[in-house]
Design goal:
The structure holds two protein chains of two kinds. Chain A is of the alpha+beta class. Chain A is 29% helix and 29% strand. The longest helix of chain A has 20 residues. Chain B is an alpha/beta fold. Chain B has two domains: 200 residues, HUPs (Rossmann fold, 3-Layer(aba) Sandwich); 82 residues, no CATH class. In chain B, α1 crosses α2 and α6 packs antiparallel against α7. The chains are: A alpha+beta, B alpha/beta. At the A-B interface, α2, β1, α4, β2 and β3 of A face α1, α2, α6 and α7 of B.
Chain lengths: 602, 305
């Protein structure tokens, strides 16, 4: 802890508390692999700022002798490892958050691993960081992984990088080595658009240039690490960004109070300010700002408050209050960077959920325009994105939302992607701009509506969705059902999988993403026929639950009936009317449902 | 450039805002939230933040105390007072099985006692009322495995935590969605350190159980630990006579399992001063973490908060 306030702690506790209550906060991320000495650096930061207590130190002495890698010397990295399995493997495999504090600042450190497969964790840690410390082993210089980390840092919008050129003791504190690494790094940083770079020659193990300038590097005149982190200004100029406030919760204890709770994620707001409610577009003025029992005149970026408005306008969770003269755009189609974070790969056109700000909407992602090789920054053609891959794609939301480009505001430009069925967080995205077509395609309202169709036909519309394995008997049953309905005077149609693949969907194959697109089109066609007033029988294998769910979700409730033709695989294979199972078993028909592609039963 | 850094806010204000944001998100995205209230200082800070988050409304959820019947009597009194002051409903759960068997730390040992009353009791309470979201006051700086736990932590219908299936948490976006039967544990003060908690209590003048302040209390010394004889259930060993000593408590739990420290610090600032000058880490007073390395992680996988 702080050196000058240590004295205050004993002599004048009130002064000490006041000093510490008014510290600022810096969140940073450390990037590098175990070999770079990253864990050693963080352990050392905790140690130097006296955040390691005596009993922890005693445990550290024991552990260092037992499993340490420093030949009996203190192994600071051991202060950090958390989960048991990781400790045994000797690597950190997740994001861990560490805390330390000096007299000037509190620090929150996101500690993330440097291995290629863990892009997910680094992106997570970087999303809340103001600054990044990039570790470079002085013996190795700027490596592929250094470039990868720096690219992610730049992508996530961190404008400040400290390059810790570590293990300088192992190259005899050579200025030449340091200068070469600095020049290499600066050239790369410029290429990827990192504005502020500071390079510090260090030995985390020996403590060189951590707290004060080291005698081992007399040729270095820049700041040492901790003093730099204590003083670096990472804010933009105050008042530069427009006011943004996603509404979390409507606060209505009684008829006399109606407030909107949320966090100011951009700019500031004062009593009387004119604000616009988006995506609706109504404007009004701020009449009260409340934090707990305190009435405020204004609120600034980062504050969580409750705002009352002068006029009674409809505002609910998910809406954004914004500066009336500098509102965000409203759109539903965008180009975005997508970072995939899940073992189940991204499937273009599948319906996912997206959470942006405090709003959750349905969304589909197009086939990526390209994927980024994070090592070379090359653009590579891609049909999908796998775990830890990053690409650029168009994304469509099912409702318009207010947004800013991610480069201007992380909170109104960043989103997460959620699986509809498992609720897992699958990925993250950064919005860049709205596609023009989203502003130019509008819904035409139709005057002959569903009721009108039903009156003329004498019955309401419906969708009967038959699903099951190939050869289960879906089409046979659907045929019989249609014949019977037709006989009763019901207007029907039958969409059959094989038939549709001869026409509308003849461009599609049988990969997972083509199957998803196949069902999406059929669902949309059945919706059109439904709108025309028909009872639509659909006979499709439709193996994936989420696509059947999607089909259900676009048909009005109570009008969609899923029929599972539950024929066991053995029976269907025994029948093998079309000879397809035989081909599939012989390996001549890849991605065949039930054989080498899954069927997810309802 | 869009950083989250803010010119005017101090670190305490930023932590406060983050916690308020988290509490509101959890409430907005769950059906039946509840706040676990353990009466300690971290719980006190969390309750204070909840009240700030929803003022002028009272927090739209009840408080839940999973009782072990062996808390300090001062804690029960303080708990009831805070429930009245906050205008929140207070729910109390005591594991009926533990009650029937008369589980106590003296005869059954700390681990059976904790497991039955706390771990099992908590699961029963959540199931009994059907809560799908429970706030807890755990901090990441308390223990190494907690440093890697998310703020929103999904638990299976069996209340198990799977460290390999944690959801990434980016920006201020928390995914609280869950399947029926699953629940989410939410830790709004994850990013606070012990020092932050003390500074905030000081700054906001948050009420605290008197046990944190030094006072003459009847104690006996066992294996170097000072235990308070809080009621007549405490079985004295041969020759053991409680003596009045000026003591206070660094953490609060069941009185037979919580060691006191000798101290004369009887004001909040003196306690903070003494705490910061003391070089032993906070959880040393709690017997539960000493069992084995990585024990907290095992307990969490089984459903301990």
């Amino acid at each position: 802890m702080a050196h000058t306030t240590d004295a205050l702690l004993e002599s004048d506790i009130e002064a000490y508390l006041t000093a510490h209550e008014n510290k600022s906060l810096l969140r940073f991320i450390t990037c590098g692999s175990v070999d770079d000495g990253k864990s050693t650096l963080i352990g050392r930061l905790l140690y130097e700022t006296k955040l390691v207590f005596e009993d922890q130190l005693a445990a550290l002495h024991v552990d260092s002798r037992k499993v340490g890698t420093q030949g009996g010397d203190l192994d600071f990295a051991l202060l950090l490892d958390g989960l048991e399995a990781e400790r045994e493997q000797g690597i950190t495999i997740d994001v861990a958050y560490r805390y330390f504090s000096t007299e000037k600042r509190k620090f929150i450190v996101a500690d993330t691993p440097g291995h290629e497969q863990y892009t997910r964790n680094m992106v997570t840690g970087a999303s809340t960081a103001d600054l990044a410390v990039v570790m470079i082993d002085a013996r190795k210089g700027v490596l592929t992984q250094t470039r990868r980390h720096s690219y992610l840092v730049a992508l996530l919008g961190i404008g400040h990088v400290v390059v810790a050129v570590n293990k300088l003791d192992l190259v005899h504190y050579s200025q030449e080595v340091f200068d070469r690494i600095e020049a290499d790094y600066r050239a790369f940083a410029e290429q990827i658009g990192i504005a502020n770079v500071v390079c510090i020659p260090m030995s985390a193990l020996k403590g060189d240039n951590l707290l004060e300038r080291s005698a081992n590097t007399p040729w270095y005149s820049g700041p040492s690490l901790i003093p730099y982190l204590e003083t670096v200004e990472v804010d933009g100029p105050a008042g530069e960004r427009p006011f943004r406030f996603p509404v979390q919760w409507v606060n209505r204890p009684d008829l006399n109070f109606r407030g909107f709770s949320g966090t100011v994620v951009g700019g500031d707001v004062s009593l009387g300010d004119k604000v616009r409610v988006l995506p609706g577009g109504q404007t009004t003025n701020v009449s009260r700002i409340v934090l707990g029992e305190t009435e405020l005149d204004s609120a600034i970026e980062g504050q969580a408050v409750t705002i009352c408005l002068a006029d009674e306008i409809d505002v609910s969770r998910g809406d954004v209050l914004a500066a009336a003269d500098r509102p965000p755009e409203v759109a539903d189609q965008f180009e975005a960077h997508i970072i995939w974070m899940h073992e189940h790969k991204m499937v273009p056109r599948r319906r996912y959920l997206v959470k942006i700000g405090t709003r959750t909407v349905g969304a589909t992602i197009d086939t990526p325009k390209y994927r980024v090789n994070v090592n070379t920054l090359d653009h590579i053609a891609a049909k999908s994105l796998e775990l830890n891959e990053i690409g650029v794609a168009n994304i469509t939301f099912d409702r318009p939302v207010a947004f800013d480009p991610y480069d201007e505001n992380r909170d109104t430009g960043g989103f997460i992607i959620i699986d509809r069925l498992t609720n897992a967080t699958l990925g993250a995205g950064l919005l860049h701009f709205a596609l023009r077509r989203s502003q130019n395609v509008h819904w035409q309202s139709l005057e002959v509506d569903a009721q009108a169709h039903a009156r003329l036909k004498g019955h309401g519309p419906a969708v009967l969705w038959f699903t099951g394995l190939s050869g289960a008997g879906k089409s046979t049953i659907a045929n019989l059902v249609e014949k019977r309905l037709h006989g009763d005077g019901v207007h029907t149609t039958l969409l059959d999988g094989d038939n549709v693949r001869h026409g509308l969907n003849k461009d599609l194959g049988f990969t997972e993403q083509d199957r998803v697109e196949n069902i999406r089109r059929v669902a949309e066609v059945s919706k059109l026929m439904f709108d025309a007033g028909l009872v639509v029988a659909v006979s499709f294998i439709s193996p994936f639950r989420s696509e059947r769910q999607m089909a259900r979700s676009i048909i009005p409730e109570g009008r969609f009936c899923e029929v599972f033709v539950d024929t066991p695989l053995a029976v269907a294979e025994e029948r093998d009317v079309k000879g397809l199972y035989r081909k599939a078993r012989a390996g001549r028909l890849p991605n065949f449902t039930g054989i080498d592609s899954p069927y997810e039963a309802p | 450039m869009g950083t989250t850094m803010t010119d005017g806010l101090s670190h305490l204000e930023r932590l406060e805002a983050e916690s308020i944001h988290i509490i509101r998100e959890a409430v907005a995205e769950s059906e039946r939230p509840v706040m676990l209230y353990s009466v300690g200082k971290d719980s006190g800070v969390m309750l204070h933040l909840a009240r700030k988050a929803f003022a002028p409304s009272p927090p739209p959820f009840p408080l839940l105390h999973v009782d072990t019947t062996f808390k300090f009597s001062d804690m029960y009194a303080f708990r009831d007072r805070m429930a009245t002051e906050s205008g929140m409903e207070l729910l109390i759960w005591r594991n009926p099985e533990a009650e029937r068997l008369g589980i106590n730390p003296f005869e059954h040992g700390s681990s059976v006692h904790t497991d039955m009353w706390k771990t099992e009791g908590l699961k029963q309470a959540l199931d009994n009322w059907g809560f799908d979201c429970a706030f807890g006051g755990a901090r990441r700086d308390e223990e190494k495995s907690r440093a890697k736990e998310r703020i929103f932590s999904i638990r299976s219908a069996q209340h198990r935590w799977d460290p390999k299936q944690q959801r990434p948490e980016l920006w201020r976006l928390y995914n609280a969605r869950k399947a029926p039967g699953e629940s989410v544990r939410v830790f709004p003060i994850s990013n606070w350190t012990e020092l932050d908690v003390w500074l905030y209590i000081h700054r906001e003048n948050i009420p605290m159980v008197p046990l944190y302040l030094a006072a003459p209390r009847p104690v006996v010394e066992r294996d170097g630990t000072l235990l308070m004889v809080d009621d007549d259930r405490f079985p004295l060993l041969d020759g053991e006579v409680p003596e009045m000593r000026s003591v206070r408590f660094r953490t609060l739990g069941c009185y037979p399992l919580t060691g006191a420290v000798e101290s004369t610090a009887d004001t909040l600032t003196e306690v903070i001063q003494e705490t910061l000058l003391t070089a032993t880490s906070e959880r040393q007073g709690r017997t539960i973490d000493h069992d084995a390395s990585g024990s907290m992680e095992k307990k969490k996988q089984e459903g301990y908060f």
